[in-house]
Amino acid sequence: MKNRVANRGVIYVHTNVVDHYVLSHGIDFYDFYQAFPDLPNLLLLRHQFEDANFNLHTLLDYVDAELIPKMTKDNIYHYEDFCWIDFEDEDTLNHLDGQEIAELLYLSHIKSHLRLPFYRKLNNRFAYLSHDDGWVNKTYYRRFDDFYTTLGTTISNRLNEKAEKTLLGFKKKKDIPSIPVEILYPFIEDMKEGMLFAIEEATYTRTTVEIPIWVIGDYYDMDEMYEEYKERDRRQLDGKIVYDRKAKEWKAFVK
Protein backbone atom coordinates (compact mmCIF):
# COMPACT_ATOMS: atom_id res chain seq x y z
CA MET A 1 0.00 0.00 0.00
CA LYS A 2 1.32 3.44 -0.88
CA ASN A 3 0.95 6.60 1.17
CA ARG A 4 1.06 4.78 4.48
CA VAL A 5 3.15 5.83 7.47
CA ALA A 6 6.77 5.55 6.33
CA ASN A 7 8.35 3.64 9.21
CA ARG A 8 6.45 0.40 9.56
CA GLY A 9 9.15 -1.33 11.55
CA VAL A 10 7.79 -0.66 15.03
CA ILE A 11 4.40 -0.84 16.71
CA TYR A 12 3.84 1.17 19.89
CA VAL A 13 0.77 0.72 22.08
CA HIS A 14 -0.36 2.34 25.31
CA THR A 15 -3.62 1.03 26.72
CA ASN A 16 -6.20 2.67 28.96
CA VAL A 17 -8.48 -0.16 29.99
CA VAL A 18 -10.70 2.00 32.23
CA ASP A 19 -11.63 4.34 29.37
CA HIS A 20 -11.56 1.58 26.72
CA TYR A 21 -8.98 3.16 24.42
CA VAL A 22 -5.52 2.53 23.01
CA LEU A 23 -2.95 5.08 21.84
CA SER A 24 -0.88 3.54 19.08
CA HIS A 25 1.76 4.15 16.46
CA GLY A 26 2.33 1.88 13.48
CA ILE A 27 -1.24 0.59 13.12
CA ASP A 28 -3.24 2.31 10.39
CA PHE A 29 -6.72 1.92 8.93
CA TYR A 30 -5.64 -0.66 6.38
CA ASP A 31 -4.26 -2.79 9.23
CA PHE A 32 -7.47 -2.30 11.18
CA TYR A 33 -9.58 -3.41 8.24
CA GLN A 34 -7.44 -6.53 7.82
CA ALA A 35 -8.38 -7.45 11.40
CA PHE A 36 -12.09 -6.63 10.90
CA PRO A 37 -13.06 -7.09 7.24
CA ASP A 38 -16.70 -7.38 8.34
CA LEU A 39 -17.01 -3.72 9.34
CA PRO A 40 -20.63 -2.76 8.53
CA ASN A 41 -20.84 1.03 8.01
CA LEU A 42 -18.67 3.94 9.12
CA LEU A 43 -19.92 7.39 10.10
CA LEU A 44 -17.11 9.69 8.97
CA LEU A 45 -16.52 12.42 11.54
CA ARG A 46 -13.35 13.76 9.86
CA HIS A 47 -12.03 12.63 6.50
CA GLN A 48 -11.25 13.58 2.88
CA PHE A 49 -12.75 10.58 1.10
CA GLU A 50 -14.52 11.90 -2.00
CA ASP A 51 -16.92 9.03 -2.67
CA ALA A 52 -18.75 8.96 0.66
CA ASN A 53 -22.53 9.03 1.08
CA PHE A 54 -24.30 11.82 2.98
CA ASN A 55 -26.74 11.56 5.88
CA LEU A 56 -29.19 14.48 6.03
CA HIS A 57 -30.04 14.07 9.72
CA THR A 58 -26.50 14.29 11.09
CA LEU A 59 -25.12 16.31 8.14
CA LEU A 60 -22.20 13.87 8.15
CA ASP A 61 -20.77 11.57 5.51
CA TYR A 62 -20.69 7.81 5.81
CA VAL A 63 -19.49 4.75 3.90
CA ASP A 64 -21.17 1.38 3.71
CA ALA A 65 -19.53 -2.05 3.64
CA GLU A 66 -19.16 -1.95 -0.15
CA LEU A 67 -17.22 1.33 -0.08
CA ILE A 68 -14.86 0.52 2.79
CA PRO A 69 -12.41 -1.55 0.68
CA LYS A 70 -12.15 1.36 -1.77
CA MET A 71 -11.44 3.76 1.08
CA THR A 72 -8.58 1.57 2.38
CA LYS A 73 -6.81 2.22 -0.93
CA ASP A 74 -7.20 5.99 -0.62
CA ASN A 75 -4.52 8.42 0.55
CA ILE A 76 -5.68 8.26 4.17
CA TYR A 77 -2.27 9.09 5.67
CA HIS A 78 -2.54 12.54 4.06
CA TYR A 79 -6.06 13.25 5.33
CA GLU A 80 -4.41 14.65 8.48
CA ASP A 81 -7.39 13.91 10.77
CA PHE A 82 -9.31 10.72 10.05
CA CYS A 83 -12.07 9.87 12.52
CA TRP A 84 -15.04 7.54 12.36
CA ILE A 85 -17.45 5.47 14.40
CA ASP A 86 -19.10 2.29 13.12
CA PHE A 87 -22.85 1.71 12.99
CA GLU A 88 -25.19 -1.05 11.87
CA ASP A 89 -27.82 0.63 9.71
CA GLU A 90 -28.31 4.11 8.23
CA ASP A 91 -31.75 4.40 9.79
CA THR A 92 -30.10 4.38 13.22
CA LEU A 93 -28.28 7.61 12.32
CA ASN A 94 -31.64 9.32 11.95
CA HIS A 95 -32.44 8.54 15.60
CA LEU A 96 -29.39 10.25 17.07
CA ASP A 97 -30.40 13.27 19.13
CA GLY A 98 -28.66 16.62 19.31
CA GLN A 99 -26.68 15.74 22.43
CA GLU A 100 -25.33 12.56 20.84
CA ILE A 101 -24.36 14.35 17.63
CA ALA A 102 -22.63 17.04 19.69
CA GLU A 103 -20.70 14.35 21.59
CA LEU A 104 -19.50 12.83 18.32
CA LEU A 105 -18.36 16.22 17.00
CA TYR A 106 -16.53 16.89 20.26
CA LEU A 107 -14.94 13.44 20.06
CA SER A 108 -13.50 14.03 16.60
CA HIS A 109 -12.39 17.60 17.33
CA ILE A 110 -10.79 17.16 20.77
CA LYS A 111 -9.84 13.46 20.32
CA SER A 112 -11.34 12.74 23.71
CA HIS A 113 -14.76 11.72 24.97
CA LEU A 114 -17.41 13.51 26.99
CA ARG A 115 -18.74 10.05 27.79
CA LEU A 116 -17.54 6.70 26.50
CA PRO A 117 -18.38 6.68 22.76
CA PHE A 118 -20.46 3.51 22.64
CA TYR A 119 -24.05 4.14 21.62
CA ARG A 120 -26.97 1.76 22.04
CA LYS A 121 -28.65 3.20 18.94
CA LEU A 122 -25.60 2.60 16.74
CA ASN A 123 -24.46 -0.61 18.46
CA ASN A 124 -20.91 0.40 17.60
CA ARG A 125 -17.80 -1.55 18.59
CA PHE A 126 -15.22 1.15 17.85
CA ALA A 127 -14.42 4.84 17.68
CA TYR A 128 -11.34 5.51 15.56
CA LEU A 129 -9.45 8.81 15.89
CA SER A 130 -6.20 9.37 14.02
CA HIS A 131 -3.85 12.14 12.98
CA ASP A 132 -1.64 11.23 10.03
CA ASP A 133 -3.21 7.79 10.07
CA GLY A 134 -0.81 5.27 11.57
CA TRP A 135 1.44 7.92 13.11
CA VAL A 136 -0.73 8.53 16.15
CA ASN A 137 -4.09 6.82 16.62
CA LYS A 138 -6.51 6.77 19.52
CA THR A 139 -8.96 3.92 19.14
CA TYR A 140 -11.83 3.06 21.48
CA TYR A 141 -12.77 -0.61 21.79
CA ARG A 142 -16.01 -1.77 23.38
CA ARG A 143 -14.35 -5.17 23.90
CA PHE A 144 -10.63 -5.09 24.61
CA ASP A 145 -10.10 -8.47 22.96
CA ASP A 146 -10.79 -6.65 19.70
CA PHE A 147 -7.66 -4.60 20.33
CA TYR A 148 -5.57 -7.74 20.82
CA THR A 149 -7.02 -9.05 17.55
CA THR A 150 -5.94 -5.83 15.82
CA LEU A 151 -2.44 -6.02 17.28
CA GLY A 152 -1.98 -9.72 16.54
CA THR A 153 -3.13 -9.34 12.95
CA THR A 154 -0.95 -6.29 12.33
CA ILE A 155 2.23 -7.91 13.67
CA SER A 156 1.79 -11.00 11.50
CA ASN A 157 1.02 -8.82 8.47
CA ARG A 158 4.25 -6.88 9.03
CA LEU A 159 6.24 -10.10 9.08
CA ASN A 160 4.53 -11.37 5.95
CA GLU A 161 5.28 -8.07 4.19
CA LYS A 162 8.96 -8.82 4.68
CA ALA A 163 8.67 -11.87 2.43
CA GLU A 164 12.05 -12.99 1.14
CA LYS A 165 12.85 -13.22 -2.57
CA THR A 166 13.76 -16.51 -4.12
CA LEU A 167 16.77 -16.92 -6.41
CA LEU A 168 14.45 -16.34 -9.37
CA GLY A 169 13.49 -12.94 -8.01
CA PHE A 170 9.95 -13.85 -7.03
CA LYS A 171 8.61 -13.07 -3.60
CA LYS A 172 8.22 -16.11 -1.45
CA LYS A 173 4.97 -16.08 0.46
CA LYS A 174 5.44 -16.19 4.23
CA ASP A 175 2.35 -17.65 5.80
CA ILE A 176 2.84 -16.48 9.36
CA PRO A 177 -0.60 -16.56 11.04
CA SER A 178 -2.14 -13.88 13.21
CA ILE A 179 -1.15 -13.96 16.87
CA PRO A 180 -3.98 -15.43 18.99
CA VAL A 181 -5.30 -12.96 21.56
CA GLU A 182 -4.38 -15.22 24.48
CA ILE A 183 -0.69 -15.07 23.50
CA LEU A 184 -0.79 -11.31 24.15
CA TYR A 185 -2.51 -11.60 27.55
CA PRO A 186 0.79 -11.88 29.52
CA PHE A 187 1.64 -8.35 28.35
CA ILE A 188 -1.62 -6.73 29.46
CA GLU A 189 -0.14 -4.92 32.47
CA ASP A 190 2.97 -3.78 30.60
CA MET A 191 0.86 -2.36 27.78
CA LYS A 192 -0.63 0.03 30.33
CA GLU A 193 2.88 1.49 30.70
CA GLY A 194 3.51 1.84 26.94
CA MET A 195 5.01 -1.06 24.99
CA LEU A 196 6.94 -1.28 21.72
CA PHE A 197 7.12 -4.28 19.38
CA ALA A 198 10.27 -3.95 17.25
CA ILE A 199 9.32 -5.69 14.00
CA GLU A 200 12.40 -4.22 12.32
CA GLU A 201 14.62 -6.04 14.80
CA ALA A 202 12.95 -9.43 14.43
CA THR A 203 15.41 -12.30 14.17
CA TYR A 204 14.82 -15.14 11.73
CA THR A 205 16.17 -18.65 11.97
CA ARG A 206 15.22 -21.83 10.22
CA THR A 207 12.94 -22.74 13.12
CA THR A 208 11.76 -19.47 14.68
CA VAL A 209 10.90 -15.81 14.23
CA GLU A 210 11.49 -13.70 17.36
CA ILE A 211 10.21 -10.16 17.93
CA PRO A 212 11.80 -8.16 20.78
CA ILE A 213 9.60 -6.10 23.11
CA TRP A 214 10.40 -3.13 25.31
CA VAL A 215 8.32 -1.22 27.86
CA ILE A 216 9.23 2.40 27.08
CA GLY A 217 6.60 4.56 28.81
CA ASP A 218 3.59 6.74 28.06
CA TYR A 219 3.95 8.88 24.92
CA TYR A 220 1.66 10.92 22.74
CA ASP A 221 4.53 12.61 20.89
CA MET A 222 5.76 9.76 18.71
CA ASP A 223 9.01 11.54 17.85
CA GLU A 224 9.89 11.43 21.54
CA MET A 225 8.84 7.78 21.65
CA TYR A 226 11.26 7.00 18.82
CA GLU A 227 14.09 8.79 20.61
CA GLU A 228 13.49 6.70 23.73
CA TYR A 229 13.37 3.52 21.66
CA LYS A 230 16.64 4.26 19.84
CA GLU A 231 18.46 5.00 23.10
CA ARG A 232 17.49 1.77 24.85
CA ASP A 233 19.98 -0.99 25.58
CA ARG A 234 19.05 -3.59 22.97
CA ARG A 235 20.23 -6.37 25.27
CA GLN A 236 17.76 -5.52 28.03
CA LEU A 237 14.49 -6.92 26.70
CA ASP A 238 11.21 -6.78 28.58
CA GLY A 239 9.86 -9.72 26.63
CA LYS A 240 9.50 -11.27 23.21
CA ILE A 241 7.01 -13.14 21.09
CA VAL A 242 8.20 -16.11 19.10
CA TYR A 243 6.72 -17.94 16.15
CA ASP A 244 7.69 -21.61 16.01
CA ARG A 245 7.87 -22.45 12.31
CA LYS A 246 7.77 -26.20 12.85
CA ALA A 247 4.89 -26.27 15.32
CA LYS A 248 3.21 -23.35 13.50
CA GLU A 249 2.33 -21.65 16.76
CA TRP A 250 3.10 -18.48 18.69
CA LYS A 251 4.63 -18.27 22.17
CA ALA A 252 5.11 -15.38 24.59
CA PHE A 253 8.08 -14.80 26.88
CA VAL A 254 7.89 -12.16 29.61
CA LYS A 255 10.88 -10.90 31.57
From TrEMBL:
<protein>
    <submittedName>
        <fullName>Uncharacterized protein</fullName>
    </submittedName>
</protein>
